[in-house]
Amino acid sequence: MKLSLWTIGKPHEPYIKQGVEEFTDRISRYFPVEWKIFPVPKHNNEDQLKKAEAALILDALNKDDYLVVLDEKGRMYSSEQLADFIQLRGNESTQKIIFLIGGAYGVDQVVMKKARATWSLSALTFPHQLVRLILAEQLYRACTILRNEKYHHR
Question: Which of 16, 53, 89, 90 lies at a C-alpha separation of 20 to 30 Å from 145?
Answer without folding.
Answer: 16
